[in-house]
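Query form — protein Type IV pilus assembly protein PilP

QUESTION: What is the three-dimensional structure of this chain?
INPUT:
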Amino acid sequence: MRGWRWLLGACVGLGLCGCEGVADLAETQAYMNQMLRQAPEPIEPLPVIRSYPAFIYDASGLRSPFQPPQSVERVERRRGARAVRPDPQRPRQRLEGFDIEQLQMVGTLSGASASFALLRSADGVHPLQIGDYLGRSEGRIVAISESRVEVVEIVADGAGGWQERPRTLLLKKHS
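ANSWER: The C-alpha cells for Type IV pilus assembly protein PilP are given below.
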C-alpha cells in the first residue's frame, strides 16, 4: 500500500509543475493581442497572366516518322499512252485486305523455278511471288531480292486519274 501513496504523490507533484507555465501563457496572449491591433501589411497583387493563342497540333495527315519517305513523281499523261487504272474484274488475293504498312518481309525462299518472298501479316506468314498482289492500293510485286520486295501500287492522282507509285518492303532483321 505504501507504493500506492508514493505513486499518487508523484502524480500530484508533476501536475503542479505543469501549472508553472501559466505566466508564459499570459505573455503569449499579450503578444497576440498586440499583433492583432496592428494593421496588416498589404499583399502584392497577383501578376497579370497573358493568354496566348491556342496551337492545335494535327499530324494525322503527315507521314509516320517510322516509315521511310516515299517519292511520288507526277507523270504527265500523253495521248495514246496506256492508261493506268485498277482492274475491278481481277480476283482479289488474301493480302489485299491489309494495309501495306502492316506487312513485313521476314525472308525469302528460292527454288529452281521461282523465288518467293515471305511476308508476315496479322494472320501468319505468306509466300508470295512476282506478279502477286498485296495491300489496299492494288500493289503488285515486280521484283524480289534477298533483302527487299519491290511493289508498284496504283493510286489516285487527285485529278480523276490513276498513277503508279513504287514501294519497297525491306527485310526485317531480328536483333
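ADDITIONAL NOTE: The domain at 100-170 is CATH 2.30.30.830 (SH3 type barrels.).
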